[in-house]
Amino acid sequence: MRLPTLENLKGRLPAKGFRPRFALPLLRGPLRTLGPGSVASLLKIALDVAYVLLMLLTAGLLIAFVAAIFIPISNYNVTVTAHDGGLQQPLTQPLLLFGLGALTAWVGGFLLILRNLRLIFRTLTAGDPFRPENVRRLRAIGLTLATVTAGVWVAQGMVAAGLVPGQMDPQGFGELLTPIFSVLVVFVLAEVFREGARLRRESELTI
Q: Residue 110's Cα: distance from chain center in Å?
């Protein structure tokens, strides 16, 4: 039996640039960040799922808030714990309504933020991010985040001062640094998108 020589094998070797049939389609090109099938489209799906879940949670909290108005509350206590012990606080109807209302407003604020984020990522998935409406959406996100931050600060201060004095500390300025920084970043991004939309409009008029 004769072994095949190198000259005989040359005709059987695949040509240069041969790509096997089992190559994955996702590996044919670099991973895109914008457009259909990109990272933005995957994040858009995640935002859609989170938006639906948060909408269901908001609806459940609203139902609980309305039910707490008509259902009498009695003989219930809540325990507020601290480093040096705890405090037994009777669960009255005004206290329950305050807690449910504050929680509903907090979740509803993030629902509005997710709604605007979904619309922004819809334009990213379409490959057209610099639209004037995205500037308004980013500003709405910044205002909502600022309102939620201020509401949490006021609500925690009211609880610490009036409802459970000595058991809860109000928010300090250091705890507000991260939310304030986030609000400023969102407003800066809104200005970046506004400038991008202006440059795009000027280029279209030039063409």
A: 7
